[in-house]
Amino acid sequence: MRAGTLALGLAAMTMAVTTASATGTLNAFTAPASARAEVEGGAEAKASPVYGVTLPRGYRSWTLISVAQENGKNNDIRAILGNDIAVKAFREGKRPFPDGAVIVRLAWRYQSSPRNDAVFPAPQSFVAGDPINVQVSVKDSRRYAASGGWGYGQFENGGATPGSALMQACAACHSKLEEGADRVFTAWAP
Amino acid sequence: MRAGTLALGLAAMTMAVTTASATGTLNAFTAPASARAEVEGGAEAKASPVYGVTLPRGYRSWTLISVAQENGKNNDIRAILGNDIAVKAFREGKRPFPDGAVIVRLAWRYQSSPRNDAVFPAPQSFVAGDPINVQVSVKDSRRYAASGGWGYGQFENGGATPGSALMQACAACHSKLEEGADRVFTAWAP
Question: Is the CB of A70 less than 8 angstroms away from the CB of B108?
């Protein structure tokens, strides 16, 4: 590595640290190298800005926690999946979630289904259209202490959505939930 | 077993066969004893009328295939899960589904979430409310030859919903789908 490149990298990381510290979120020094690349503007980063969260291997086969549907700008239908640690906590109603819990939210376009409506007795059917993005919440009470123990990431087409403002919005929104929710929107759907 | 009880049982089974044959659906002779009990009017049957389909053990942990939402009389939000055989076929786009494929549809009340709306930027959020029922489709091309290779069941609170008319409605509705769908509404959500 050339000295100039190293210096530039360190300067960018220092800037990121300064910015993140001001908002109380995590900084680039706690994130893995792949996340630091994103902080520095890498276009196809595999880890989220600020938190260094990656898309978990095999998440698509994880257990369903619940489903939801958002109107407005989101206009999506979604499924929330969890790894075994998260699912166990959901099933037992355990809060706060233990370290290692990972929750994955998949969103697809909320789409009317003329095909189903032609068969059903009334026009009423909405299905999952094109995938929009996947959001990941990782519980690590020490690493993510500054954001209530949760690190966040958003992924589109397998790559992390860039922008530290988006990540700070995750934390800000989740932190508005009632005491005792451990910053989690979703409840177990029996 | 007393001779009188046996004779009564056979008479009931013969009636069931006569009724089912007229509509082209399966008859009580192909269903297990638990389903026959339901045909004969058992109140807490574990197997569906007509098809003798049971609620699969561990289905709640099966892999998510997709999500959907139905308005109108249904007013539900739903998740469709599958066993490994079904999921493999969905992932590979394989039709018809191989024998042993099982698809489970869970439906919950489609419910506005004031809690989420208080946090989100706009009133827009709908979540899974109380569970409504679980519908199960089992592929067995020989056993269920008369209904396109699929047997059906609906379950509420762990018990099979009674009524052969409901089961015949399952088959009738699924059979209206286009050629090549193998009578399955759901597509894999990536």
Answer: no
pLDDT digits (tens, 9 = 90+) for B49-64: 999 999 999 999 999 9
CB-CB contact of B68 with B81 (8 Å): no
Q: Report the amino acid identity of residue A136.
A: V
Cβ-contact A44, A54 below 8 angstroms? no
Q: Is the peptide bond before A96 cis (omega within 30 degrees of 0)?
A: yes
Give the side-chain half-sphere CA count within 13 A for B22.
7
Task: Please check the confidence at residue A110 and state whether its pLDDT lies above 60.
Answer: yes
CA distances from A9 to A21, A29, A66, B126 (A): 18, 12, 42, 44
> If we measure between CA atoms, which residue out of B168, B155, B152 comes closest to residue B102?
B152
| Cβ neighbours of A61 in B, within 8 Å | 63, 87
Chain B residue with minimum CA distance to A178: B115
**Local structure of B136: helix, strand or coil:** strand
Q: CB distance B71–A126 less than 8 Å?
A: yes
Confidence class for position A22, pLDDT limits 50, 70, 90: very low
CA distance B174 to A76: 26
Whether B180 and chain A come into contact, CB under 8 Å, resolves to: no
Minimal CA–CA distance to A125: which of B73, B17, B152, B3? B73
What are the φ/ψ torsions at residue A106 (nearest 5 degrees)? -100, 130
Backbone angles phi, psi at A49, to 5 degrees: -60, 160
